């Protein structure tokens, strides 16, 4: 099954290289995910292809116009009737649980805003869900869309090989990962913990669990709260 991701943006080239590298590239080649990138400006009908305008009520910045964006959203929905998501700092926080839910299907239409955002009527009438990637403001929705889609695509069945297995990683269980080391055993006077070269698998597992817990307690104690 191919998971469709349709991105609506004023800057389609933004996505060129991130979608053609590494694991995402491989997932596309294996038909596990299919990307369609639409330039919202292509749906503007005036001769200047206007996609934004000044805000009613005055103030700084521009607002993305409803007509081209709604036309783009309707065209995308006609191809694949999947949830329409708008990226905004006002949305529900992106968590591993949300990435998991979205990865279970049927796909998504990602709408990237720019300037001061989009006309509120688009959000009221043509958006199913709003997602924030964190409590900070980006220049536009594009980097947020990339982060959201990356977190979803890697969870699609068949995308990660065994070597990259998602089994005991951070947030899948609500713990941060233990430290990782590779060769050489000595690097500038710093050595790999002895237990990792002991060959004693039960001891290694125990050490890794302890390290995960210690890191989580030190860095993200909120993850260990029962009610969060
Ligand atoms: N657009 C601008 N900032 C954003 C954020 N933090 N999350 C999602 N979309 C955004």
Write the layout of secondary structure elements.
Elements: E1 3-9, H1 22-29, E2 33-39, E3 52-53, E4 63-64, H2 66-79, E5 84-93, H3 96-103, E6 108-111, H4 120-126, E7 129-132, H5 141-153, E8 186-187, E9 190-191, H6 201-219
The structure holds adenine.
Could you walk me through the main structural features you see in this protein, from its secondary elements to its overall organization?
Helix 2 runs parallel beside helix 4. It contains six helices and nine strands. Strand 8 and strand 9 form a beta hairpin. The radius of gyration is 22 Å and the shape is elongated. The two termini are 34 Å apart. The strands form three sheets. The chain has a five-stranded parallel beta sheet, sandwiched between helices. A two-stranded antiparallel sheet has the order 3-4. The protein folds into two domains: 151 residues, SPOUT methyltransferase, trefoil knot domain (Alpha/beta knot, 3-Layer(aba) Sandwich); 60 residues, tRNA(m1g37)methyltransferase, domain 2 (Trp Operon Repressor, Chain A). The mean pLDDT is 95. The longest helix is centred in the last third of the chain and has 19 residues. With 228 residues, the chain is α/β, with parallel strands linked by helices. The relative contact order is 0.14. Helix content is 30%, strand content 18%. Bound molecules: adenine (ADE). Adenine binds next to strand 5 and helix 5.
């Amino acid at each position: 099954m191919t998971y469709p991701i349709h991105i609506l943006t004023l800057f389609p080239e933004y996505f060129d290289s991130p979608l053609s590298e590494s694991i995402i590239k491989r997932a596309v080649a294996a038909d596990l995910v299919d990307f369609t990138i639409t330039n919202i400006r292509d749906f503007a009908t005036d001769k200047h292809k206007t996609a934004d305008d000044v805000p009613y009520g005055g103030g700084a910045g521009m607002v993305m116009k409803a007509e081209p964006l709604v036309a783009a959203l309707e065209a995308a929905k006609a191809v694949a009737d999947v949830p329409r998501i708008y990226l905004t700092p006002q949305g529900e926080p992106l968590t591993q649980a949300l990435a998991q839910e979205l990865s279970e299907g049927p796909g998504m239409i990602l709408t990237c805003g720019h300037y001061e955002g989009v006309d509120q009527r688009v959000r009221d009438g043509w958006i199913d869900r709003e997602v924030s990637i964190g409590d900070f403001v980006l220049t536009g929705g594009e980097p947020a869309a990339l982060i959201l889609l990356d977190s979803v695509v890697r969870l699609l069945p068949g995308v990660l090989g065994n070597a990259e297995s998602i089994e005991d990683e951070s947030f899948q269980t609500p713990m941060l990962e233990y430290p990782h080391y590779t060769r050489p055993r000595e690097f500038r006077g710093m050595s790999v913990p002895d237990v990792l070269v002991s060959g004693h698998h039960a001891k290694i597992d125990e050490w890794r669990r302890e390290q995960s817990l210690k890191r989580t307690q030190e860095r993200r104690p909120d993850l260990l709260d029962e009610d969060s």
